[in-house]
Inverse folding.
């Protein structure tokens, strides 16, 4: 079965292809001739991933899935959430975003936060969503040089290293994205087996 992952990130595609196994052929946006930027102007992660999956399905007539991720901070009532990439402005700069986050949490004792990924699978039979969550806390100063985004200020629950102090392999075993993808892969494999 061929399935499109609505992303241009080859690394993400490779990673998911490895999890899916050879019964599935995963292609990216470039492979289906989609070169336009996909809109992400909804107010929820669910809305954005659905918007991207629907766009690809309606325009390109292929079964596909799309993801969207946000950092949800309890003391900020879920912000930056769906606006995580552009929290400090349209320049989408990770350093500016972290700086603003730490400023906004300066007087807060409650440092609880979570990363949440929502994946929407869109096929002719309909749509399904899968969620992956990584609980943790926002520390006072950035630590570590790996990863991207808010990794240097995010301490996963039960760990003493921030996500940016972990090797990619280690992060990939616990991450919100990995957890959502695992649910998607389990669903696809189970269905494949029951249709065999
Ligand atoms: P996207 O939906 O994967 O593009 O993620 C949106 C934004 O959330 C990114 O631009 C980052 O600011 C943040 N983000 C998503 N995943 C991670 C992660 O694994 N670590 C740190 N920040 C992340």
């Amino acid at each position: 079965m061929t399935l499109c992952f609505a992303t241009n990130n080859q690394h993400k595609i490779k990673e998911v292809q490895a999890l899916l196994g050879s019964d599935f052929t995963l292609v990216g946006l470039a492979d289906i001739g989609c070169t336009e930027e996909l809109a992400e102007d909804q107010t929820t992660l669910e809305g954005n991933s659905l918007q991207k999956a629907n766009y690809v399905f309606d325009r390109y007539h292929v079964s596909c899935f799309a993801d969207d991720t946000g950092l949800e901070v309890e003391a900020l009532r879920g912000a930056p959430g769906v606006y995580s990439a552009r929290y400090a402005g349209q320049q989408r700069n990770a350093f500016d975003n972290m700086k603003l986050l730490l400023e906004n949490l300066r007087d807060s004792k409650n440092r609880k936060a979570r990363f949440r990924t929502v994946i929407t699978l869109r096929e002719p039979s309909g749509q399904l969503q899968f969620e992956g969550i990584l609980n943790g806390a926002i520390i006072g100063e950035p630590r570590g040089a790996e990863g991207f985004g808010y990794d240097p200020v995010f301490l996963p629950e039960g760990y003493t290293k921030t996500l940016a102090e972990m090797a990619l392999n280690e992060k990939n075993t616990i991450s919100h994205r990995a957890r959502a993808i695992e649910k998607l892969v389990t669903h696809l494999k189970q269905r494949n087996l029951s249709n065999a």
